[in-house]
Design a protein that fits this description.
The protein is of the alpha/beta class and 348 residues long. Helix content is 34%, strand content 21%.
């Protein structure tokens, strides 16, 4: 996932399988329901709170720092809920869904694709969305070194707020002095891709570097298999460099990856022009298992929504742990659903 400066790419596969297995084994203790007054106090077993719940996530930090990084968040949640909250480290995002399906975790912090899978397969409830630099979603940029072929209006400059860089745009992708990065915009220009045009595309698993761009091109009548020359690149910075260096005429990356190469190519803001934005690509978020009592989920949602603002330490922990600046209860579930539809096009 973006992978946008809104989110630097840093999804790292962490810990050994043995460590993950040990943590999951510990989570097994959470299956028993408590008859105490920890939860809503109902006589119905269905609304009694468990004595313990387990949260599964893929952290940004590595190895020996995991326990230290997780402890502040789980301690905060344990104190707020009045029950034990344990953290379990998943080896990858798919493993978070597997943990929920096996009832080894009841809360997931995971990427958008895994959220969709958890919702579809296990009826998980989407309760929060990830916020990075003020945004819960981001667009993929279509950029070119040949604006005359794709820009139907004047090239303008706007300031990319995350870095202060002055970057070039056209086709109404930006209309003010401050770049907003809101898509979709200018996608009709993709219909102008001539047959055989070299286009820099990232791995087929990349939402911003491949999936959303390919869907956008197909919707404009472009045969992405035979109608263009695909130039494979690894990473958003290399997609920008491919366009800046002339290896590709068009390329795709998260908004606005041009800022990642300004030291290497100081003129990138002038030489590489963004002429279109794809649909907005959702950040990940937090989902809860349907087995959890509704009032517990409500309190959990509130606590996690308020975590980043609870202290300076919490804000630092959140960024260091999962690379986020906040969570938002505005889930925009339709974006997750749309992401699932796009993923389905690449799983056939």
């Amino acid at each position: 996932m973006r992978q946008n400066l809104r989110q630097p790419t840093r999804q790292t596969t962490l810990v050994t399988a043995l460590a993950a297995a040990s943590a999951l084994a510990l989570a097994g203790c959470s299956a028993e329901a408590s008859g105490s007054d920890s939860g809503g106090g109902s006589d119905s077993e269905a609304t009694e709170w468990p004595e313990e719940i387990t949260l599964s996530l893929v952290p940004s930090v590595e190895g020996e720092d995991l326990a230290e990084a997780l402890d502040p968040l789980t301690a905060y949640l344990s104190d707020g809920l009045g029950i034990s909250v344990e953290g379990v480290v998943a080896t990858d995002y798919a493993a978070t869904v597997e943990a929920l399906g096996a009832d080894q975790a009841q809360v997931l912090i995971t990427d958008a694709g895994s959220l969709y899978t958890a919702m579809e397969q296990y009826d998980a409830e989407l309760i929060l969305r990830d916020v990075r630099f003020g945004a819960t979603s981001y667009a993929s940029i279509a950029m070119t070194n040949n604006p005359g072929a794709y820009c139907t209006d004047e090239v303008v400059t706007a300031t990319y707020g995350a870095t202060g860089d002055e970057l070039s745009y056209c086709n109404g992708t930006e209309t003010g002095p401050e770049a907003a990065g809101q898509g979709p915009a200018g996608l009709e220009a993709l219909a102008g891709l001539a047959e055989g045009t070299p286009v820099a595309l990232q791995a087929a698993t990349s939402p911003a570097g491949y999936q959303y761009p390919v869907v956008a091109m197909r919707e404009q009548g472009i045969d992405t298999d035979t109608g263009i020359q695909q130039i494979p690149v690894e990473g958003n910075n290399n997609a920008v460099l491919a366009v800046a260096n002339g290896d590709a005429e068009v390329g795709f990356a998260y908004w606005d990856a041009r800022s990642t190469v300004t030291e290497e190519v100081p003129t990138v803001g002038e030489d590489v022009v963004v002429f279109a934005y794809t649909e907005m690509i959702p950040n990940g978020g937090v989902a809860a298992a349907p087995s959890l009592p509704e009032d517990l989920v409500t309190e959990l949602t509130t606590l996690m929504d308020e975590y980043a603002d609870s202290s300076e330490e919490a804000a630092a922990v959140m960024f260091d742990l999962v690379g986020l600046s906040d969570w938002s209860a505005d889930t925009a579930e339709d974006e997750i659903t749309r992401y699932g539809e796009i993923l389905a096009q690449f799983s056939q």
